[in-house]
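User: what does the whole thing look like in 3D?
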Amino acid sequence: MNFRHFSLSIAAALLCATSALAQNPPANPPAAPPSMMDRLNAFLGLGGKSAWTPEQLAAMNKLRDAAMKDPYAYNELHHLTDNIGPRLSGSPQAQAAVDWVAGEMRALGAEVTLEKAMVPHWVRGEEKAELVSWPGQATGTKQKIVLTALGGSVATPPEGITAEVVVVKNFAELHALPAGAVKGKILVFDHPFDKELAGNGDGLNAYGNGVVYRAAGPAVAASAGAVAVLVRSVGGAEFRIPHTGMTDYAPGIEKIPAGAVTAEDAELLANLANQGPVKLHLTLTPQTFPDAQSYNVIADWKGSEHPEQVVIVSGHLDSWDLGTGAIDDGAGIAVSMQAIHLLKELGIRPKRTVRFVAWMSEEEGSQGAAAYMAEHKAEFANHIGAIESDLGADHPTGIYYAGKPALGAYLRPLSAVLEPIGAEVLSDSTETGEDIAGLTEGGVPSFAPIQDSRFYFNYHHTPADTFDKIDFKHLNENAAVMTVLAYALADSAEPAPR
Amino acid sequence: MNFRHFSLSIAAALLCATSALAQNPPANPPAAPPSMMDRLNAFLGLGGKSAWTPEQLAAMNKLRDAAMKDPYAYNELHHLTDNIGPRLSGSPQAQAAVDWVAGEMRALGAEVTLEKAMVPHWVRGEEKAELVSWPGQATGTKQKIVLTALGGSVATPPEGITAEVVVVKNFAELHALPAGAVKGKILVFDHPFDKELAGNGDGLNAYGNGVVYRAAGPAVAASAGAVAVLVRSVGGAEFRIPHTGMTDYAPGIEKIPAGAVTAEDAELLANLANQGPVKLHLTLTPQTFPDAQSYNVIADWKGSEHPEQVVIVSGHLDSWDLGTGAIDDGAGIAVSMQAIHLLKELGIRPKRTVRFVAWMSEEEGSQGAAAYMAEHKAEFANHIGAIESDLGADHPTGIYYAGKPALGAYLRPLSAVLEPIGAEVLSDSTETGEDIAGLTEGGVPSFAPIQDSRFYFNYHHTPADTFDKIDFKHLNENAAVMTVLAYALADSAEPAPR
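Assistant: Here's the predicted 3D structure for the full assembly of 996 residues, as structure tokens:
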């Protein structure tokens, strides 16, 4: 998940940089929990006529139970992360993942299409930094600074640059500095991640509050004359690991090298710079190549009555390159694959087509999704629903839905199906998934598992996003939500309200 | 803390490698908690005649309260970690730390001596590894393996080595392999850290169970014909950070390059090697220079009646080089400095000398401590007590003591003094500190704060051992234990039982 929808546009950030808005960017408030009565009604299956027959509800129960036992999702994810590895857009690993997923889907009997998309092709290079002078420095010593390049960053010269460091907490502090204070310097945005907010379950807003510095920081810093920019990693972990992620440059503003330092290194820089001049030697040598040909993998489990009507189950196949993309978003791919696998295993052929989509390049601009939207715009009326899982693989408490309020009543019988795995909540949301946002905007009802995000931002975009972070039971709960919901949307007598 | 006392000798490890002992090395059982009655008596100050007058106990209360408020320890630790940085034995930073601590102690009016010790001078070099072939590998891809060299490791050739990987869980699995199975290979010990044991408060034994592989692994692997050895990091964190630490080579056995991979990378290697041949390219280029001249810093706060009698307050000044040595063991240094600082601030001159010692090179063999023991052997009778803090800076629950059982009754009045900060437990132990082990063996009563070790091994010896891990209140609680105990030992009418 890249959360570009959280990033203010560069222009807005430049405009707002001195306002309170920049410190508290607009972000979605957490969805209100359903009332006790709603929960009770949902649990009892009350609140209106069900869109599903008792036989269909029995099939959902079977799919749920199968999802909780079947190791397919877990094993596929293990292969994707360990055997294929990191899947940066445009990389050989991303292509290998496309080929492998397509093969797996064909093996299940799905109808597979590779849909072309041109994607960014950015390759991480050397990345290192060290303090070369600071207050109280002992003769002949340096200090290592742990950092990583932000996605899309331009490079320093191969031998690096050496410049004084200026540390600010936020845009407002930057703009309070005297004119020229940042000229020729390396600007550091030391904006701490709100761990309490994340720990209270609102990781998305904690992330949103910090990620504006990652997205807009380079352009804002360059406007102020900085020669490079470092942002404090946007994440909750305290283990000196950097969090990468896409940055944005602005037209007409110089592109300067951009990296993320760890929380620890941001605090070290802030402490030392507060005592006197601090000089940093910084080397980042990523390369940006011409856009590369890549693909969304589309695999249709054809509907028995309305094959032209589709319900999408999806995740994104690309990942950042520091880890192996287990929680972001191998898990979304694996639980979507599981939906097709279980329909096959249980011999279920819903009325409508269940379409698996492995989106490409979500992390670097959602070019795969854009290609799909352009290609299928005319078929949106036949898109009955779209689901994406892209917030990890921790325990899901239910389903987010975006679209008509009537979707809530429509989904109520599913709440009872998912209650035994603790996923009975139904929650209205304006956001379901980055890749399906175009469908949502086009009037297609869209959905996502409501995932526990308390720990997600400790690992997301870091070297520690690896397979061992996956819990078998939690992953299967997500697979159950995905599979039950996909079947329900694809087999209901009437399509979901829109 | 290096916990060399946990490491079996190489010879023993080689002998025991096939026995159950190797999987469950002997380690100290956790100290039994005091009975409810003991606690009550301690709290009430009952259980025998107090060695301290009401006036002395009042002074202890004052020292405790001052320790809880005074920011000296916290600020000194901040300078040591951020401004001086990592302090590897023989490094310019270690020398800078010696000079700075000596200066700070002179500024307090203590009598400072720099006591020579020859210490190892090992310097970390380049360290990187990548998988070059594995089952399911996509054409043209490699995978990064995160690791660090173990302290004292020899180097690979500058261009690295490439070899197949063999993964075992423990010595028994290694010895169950066919003869020659490891010859020419890189041997990986994938022995998981027992996080449950650590989480339950017994971090020391969790560490002890794993650290034998770090200590003896290289010699055992070389004996089996391996060309290099990698051990799974001995620590509880799941953030893909490696834990360094000293390794041992054995006389007459080839020295092979030795590193620690992260828990995540150990699991990746184990999973892939379980599927088929895995080849790794490994580059480690540390250098071992001739032993360097270094120093223990000794600073005496001279006693008013028996200046020749000394009570030691101490920590070790050297650290590993990945982090900045905040919890291991900058904290021990800072709380020991605080003891001298508070005696000065409160104008207290105990009967006996309170001797601050900043030990050098604990991490690489305790050469500083060995030099002290050799130099002061004849004065052990005048060493009334020795305290070391070397298990971090989390909440202390009381005092470990090593020596005569009568020490328990002797210390009881202190339990009441320390109860308001939750540090009232008195616990017999055979271990108090690595650096003061020679004094303990020489019959000197020795002591340590009982520190909460549940989180210590998540950070210890990693890049994440940095100042932000220090909690002001917890650090001050440790300073209070150190200061109250030092004063008590130095001012009691009768010396502590021995």
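In plain terms: The first helix of chain B runs from residue 10 to 16. Chain B touches chain A through 45 residues (CB under 8 Å).
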